[in-house]
Design a protein that fits this description.
Blueprint lengths: L1 H22 L8 E6 L2 E8 L2 H12 L6 E4 L2 E2 L9 H14 L8 E6 L2 E8 L2 H11 L7 E4 L2 E2 L8 H11 L8 E6 L2 E8 L2 H12 L6 E4 L2 E2 L1
Parallel strand pairs: 2-3, 2-4, 6-7, 6-8, 10-11, 10-12
Antiparallel strand pairs: 1-2, 5-6, 9-10
Helix pairs in contact: 5-6
Amino acid sequence: MSDRKDKMSDQSLRQDVIDELEFEPSFDAANIGVAVENGIVTLSGHVSSYAEKIAAESAAKRVKGVRAIAEEVEVRYPERKRHADDEIAARALDIIAWHTALPDDAIDVKVEKGRVTLSGEVRWHFQKMAAENAVKKLGGVTAVTNLLTIRPVASVPDVKDRVEDALRRNAEVEASQIRVNVVDNKVILEGGVRAWNERAVAERAAWSVPGVVAVENHLSIS
């Protein structure tokens, strides 16, 4: 009986994910396949840009009941929209240079077959993500690997208390269900949350505390 119930639950979740993909206007869901097993969603098929691939994954994560995402969507650019690696690299460097939140000459860019790799050192996690968000929208990009590291700073006191306070202030998460541990300014989040978006919100809250150089998110979806 339990197996039958789980199967029906997966079928219902699959339809919810399909509906959410079709509802999202930033990409065409016609070429995206969805499979679900035990709450784990597998996306397959192809889209016409890397930005669309990320948008499809984000849409699936918004659906209540999704426990994890296995993402197998390919990026297939039309021939007229293909770009040489050196062109992509030049555009990536330009867009990073123009971004007011990013430090000058701190980020290195490597491009191979449309795959962009970012390396270097920044002061804040939001700068690391800003660099990735800037280049993933460029034409010709098929994947982004973000190897940017957070610059170490002198040990900041009370990191654990600050993270817990940040979680309590956030209306989108149930802070009482989250355990926070700190080792050498690395924050480890454990416990359970109600939905995938709460997991992401809790991680962002941890990153917002000065002195945090890494976050390990072990929160499960309950």
